[in-house]
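Course exercise 7: structure representation. Students receive a sequence record and must write out the corresponding structure in token form. The form below is the worked example handed out in class, using Heptahelical transmembrane protein 4 (391 residues). Read each field label carefully; the graders check that inputs and outputs are placed in the correct fields and that the protein name is recorded exactly as given.

STUDENT ID: A-19
EXERCISE PROTEIN: Heptahelical transmembrane protein 4
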Amino acid sequence: MASTVTLEKTTTIQSDGTGGGGSPKAMTLRSPLLTKAGKGGDGSGAIAKQGKCCGHSHRRCELVSYDKLPEFLKHNEFIVDHYRSEWPVKDALLSAFAIHNETINVWTHLIGFFVFLALTVCAATMVPMEYEASSHSAMAASTTGLTNLTGNPLVLRSDSRDEAVTVAMSALRNVSVAAETAGPAAAAAGHRVARWPFYAYLCGAMFCLLMSSACHLLACHSEHASYVFLRLDYAGITGLIVTSFYPLVYYTFLCHPLFQALYLGFITVSGAAAVAVSLLPVFERPELRWARAGLFACMGASGLVPILHKMLVFGARPEAVLTTGYEMAMGAFYLAGVLVYSTRVPERWMPGRFDLAGHSHQLFHVLVIAGAYAHYLAGLVYLSWRDVEGC
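STUDENT ANSWER:
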């Protein structure tokens, strides 16, 4: 129910004119000084919009245009309308179910978080079961060729490039295949390689997606909230890049501890430095968008070194070829995302047309999820490879 508070200035004026009885007449003029209403007429609504939403819980929060935003919320001048500005935490949380220019940004990465949570549970439950089954049937597989173990994760047991193509096609259909093993040596391996690099990557992906979703949902609350959540968002991006190296480096160089430690140490230190740089307030300025994109792109590009090293050492193996294919797809998705983010296409071409759907940051989110999923598939190949052969 709308409530109205009115402060009035009262002025009494004596008039010489006479009314019906001929006596002097007093007139009272009332001048409204301040009117606030949750829902009002012309004057009340206009004044109510000027108040800060977080300072007046009784006021209904409204979407505003870019011109009415405080400086800390001005990130993209080509998105011209449907902004939330200084909303209370409760209203900001509930706005996840409303329409504004951050709605799709929130839900793309929130849904992505739950997808990767499901993939993590799937990997934790299905991959060990498949490993056990493949260990008991390794000798039989050497004489029966391709054996379909389950309908889920990839299992690779091949030294043939032709069979690598078969595995890749099966992966696209999400069908698990096992190629012909290399004799009793595979069965004799009898151990499971460490899982922590693979799960570290999954945790890094989930942290990135969750922090991004929270940032887009709650950064509109206040300048302090914007500062904190943007730093968490940058930390999430850094965590995704760093942990993406872990399966690649750990499983590729399982038998080369020096290179393994060198690559893992380099990317971990680089990630820590990137997080430290992102703590600087100047880092979030709109004009430094290219600097942010360049920093994360350079971190990701450094992954080319261990990939090239892998192909030099294991280029004849189908596992190396297949994982490199997935990693190139991941890199292509991430690079496309960086270019879209930094150039602000397509809203740059038609400001205001893509305020609610289709703007660059939404496309960036979708490309990040696609790249992360490609690397998840590569991680499954690494696990099956090292489970069979070990070091």
